[in-house]
Amino acid sequence: MTTILMIVIAVLLTFIVVWAWMMAQRLNRLHIRTDSALQALQAALDRRAALVAALHPETVLEAQAAQKIQLGYETFADRAEKERVISARIAAIGESAEPMIVDAETRLSLAHRFYNDAVADTRALRTRTLVRWLRLGGTAKLPEFFEFADYS
């Protein structure tokens, strides 16, 4: 009886350790996905700002101010404010927007969607009770959503 109980406990502990290891690996992959989506979002925002500045010289100051702000969790609010100004300028241009700006807007929309989707997946796993209790997320910060007004 004691041997069977020890085997059951060993199997149960092995199962828990394997589950925790798999969750930690999944969280690591999700954090990598979130980081690369954040870099893609940064590139899309910078590309749009550069295009708007090149095609509409009156927006150079706003575009340069936006490009100076690196996209990070602590700078989201500042960058979002600058992007709102650029979006308002693009909206003011209206139907006569160049195809390159329309393409940049489309790419930005996709990058924004991919980033927020990666954040949602990461947060969904990180906020589970057992994942929090076992601290499987390590020391990585909980990712935040990036929102800005899109007038396109």
Automatic annotation (TrEMBL):
Chain ranges passing through the membrane: 6-24
Record key words, sorted: Membrane, Transmembrane, Transmembrane helix
Protein name: Secreted protein
UniProt source species: Corynebacterium pseudotuberculosis (strain C231)
